Amino acid sequence: MQFEEDPRIKVARRGLVLAWTFFSVFLAVTLGVAAASSNQPLLFGLPRWVALSSILVPALFVVALIPIVEKLIPDIPLSDEEEEAP
Q: Is the pLDDT of residue 77 over 60?
């Protein structure tokens, strides 16, 4: 008897790897920009490292996340196919 794995499990595992990869890259970029920036005022009088790493980098990553989600995460039904809708 062969056990057939639910395809939603495969999509969930792929999403988990994608999320951890995206977060790791985001964290590395944020810390790298903060470490490489100076204390000179840039935006609203905030130091350059705060303005870049806490405002601009997250905004860019949110915009970058939209096409990633659209292209790499498929739309799958969450209910079983055998169940009938009430």
A: yes
CA dihedral in degrees (13, 78, 26, 55; nearest 10)?
Answer: -170
The DSSP-derived string for 32-58 is HHHHHS-SSEEETTEEHHHHIIIIIHH
Nearest 5°: the CA angle 57, 55, 21 is 35
Identify the burial level of 10 via C-beta atoms within 10 angstroms of its C-beta, where 0-12 means exposed, 13-18 middle and 19 or more buried.
exposed
Helix (H, G, I), strand (E, B) or coil at 59: helix
Whether the Cβ atoms of residue 13 and residue 1 lie closer than 8 Å to each other = no
Crossing angle of the two packed helices 57-72 and 7-36, in degrees rounded to 10: 160
Instruction: Read off the pTM.
Output: 0.77
